[in-house]
Amino acid sequence: MTALWLMFSASFLAATLLPGGSEVLLVALLNESSDAWLSLVIAATVGNTLGALTSFYLGSLGRFARSPEEVAKGKYRHAMVLIQKYGYWALLLSWAPLIGDILCLLAGWMKLPLLRSTLMILVGKCVRYLLVAAFALHWL
Fold first, then answer.
1. Where do the VTT domain residues begin and end (predicted)?
2. SS3 assignment, position 13
3. What are the pLDDT digits (tens) for 91-137?
4. How many whole angstroms from its chain centre is CA 20?
5. Domain locations in the chain?
6. How distant is the alpha carbon of residue 132 from its chain centre?
7. Which of 14, 43, 64, 120 could make an S-S bridge to 8, C-beta 3.0–4.6 Å?
8. Among residues 100, 111, 72, 44, which one has the least CA distance to residue 90?
C-alpha cells in the first residue's frame, strides 16, 4: 500500500511544473513487485492526471495575469499553436516531457472543455505508463 501512495504522490508532483521522474519510480517498484503492475499503473495514471488538472486549473487562473498577445509571442508559442490547431486533442501529448505540462497549463488558460480535456489527459498518461510498465516487465 505504501508503494501505491508513493507512486501516486510522485506522479502527481511530476505532472505539475515541478521536475520529477515518476517513470523511474514505476520501473523500480515493478522490479520489486511485478504482480502489482496494474495497481501501480493505475496509481501513477490517476496521480499524474490529477497533477495535470492542477496545472489546467492554475492556467485558468492565469488568464487574468496574461493577455493572449503576451502568451502568443512568448516562450509558450509552440504549445499555443498546437492547442489552437488541435484543441483538446493536443492534450494526448500531455505525457510528453517539456511540452506536456505547458499544454495542460495553456488548455486551462484557453478554457478548453474540462471533461474532454480530462479524458485526453487521462488517455495520454495511461498509455505512457502502460508502455513503461510493459518495457520494464518484459525487457528489464
1. 36-134
2. helix
3. 999 999 889 999 999 999 999 999 999 999 999 999 999 999 999 99
4. 12
5. 2-139
6. 14
7. 43
8. 100
